[in-house]
Design goal:
By secondary structure, this protein is α+β, with helices and mostly antiparallel strands. The protein has one domain: Aminopeptidase, CATH 3.40.630. Helix content is about 30%, strand content about 30%. The chain has a seven-stranded mixed sheet with strand order 1-2-3-4-5-7-6, sandwiched between helices. The longest helix is centred in the N-terminal third of the chain and has 15 residues. The protein is globular, with a radius of gyration of 15 Å.
Length: about 160
Amino acid sequence: MTITVARATRSELQPTQSLLYEYFDAIGVVVRDAPEDIVAFLTDPHCALWLAYADGHPAGCVALRALPLDGVAAATECKRLYVRPAYRGRGIAEALLDAMEAHAAASGAAWIYLDSKDDLAHALRHYQRRAYQPCARYNDNPQATIFMRKALASLANP
């Protein structure tokens, strides 16, 4: 199986929407991305979204957006990491996070934040293996119970 990961463009709106809505169903949360929010992931210069393809079929995604936080310089937020069940266990989540983190670091980000739910134990262990650490709540997402962040630069300021 050939896995490719690339930053998505507006021309990939349909597979992006499909993966994101599948993600919301899979983790049992309220849909939080209106169609215009999904377009923003693909077109806004302060956002980015990567798609993973397995033998040409959409297999997973992850998004990144700027995160304005008081007292935290150069923060970004990891959103919507998802790999379809049929493609799990093949390193796709790692490849997606590698692409997202490399882009964030190259763009000058010092931190990547994320929120999650405590019942997503596998995902949380995955983030911990990648040096994401617990942090204080940084948003008002009522569905999130876990908050984490990762320093991208050795001189990152909390």
